[in-house]
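Chapter summary example.
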Amino acid sequence: MMKQIRAGLMSAVLVVLICGAAFAQGTFVPQGSVIVPGLESVFISSKSNWATYMALTNITNDAISCRVIVYDQNGNDVTYRTKIMTGSASSGWVVIAAGTSDFEIPAHSTRKFVLQAVGSKEVIIGHATIQWSSNDPLPHTALIGSARTGGYVDSKIFATNIPINNGQPF
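The structure predicted for these 170 residues follows.
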């Protein structure tokens, strides 16, 4: 009887350990966050469109994990309309991820996050939540950033640039 109880307890402990390990691997625990309102991306035609860009800079000495989720005017997650980019001295903008909310920013590096409407007469207005986490539990702030909307309407170029979180680290 004791062998059966012991075997049952060992099985239960093993199931808990396996499930806990599987759950921990997919867990993103944010250490900081901010909400960015006023995102807008419009595609009317090839001669009239604009997009929102966010430059996010890691101000720590370690790589951080970043999660950006974009919501449209109806509260729908439209992160699938996004790209994460970096610059290159020889090939301009380089897309390092597309359609995903999770990406890494190396220490002291900047990534460009782009929300861009692509369909005929498509309009996206909304907001984003930006969250970050680090293997280092000490930083209370890790990112600074700015949001920019830019584009052109009938050959006239325009752009705005607004600091995220009033320019303060978050």
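To summarize the output: Helices lie at 2-25.
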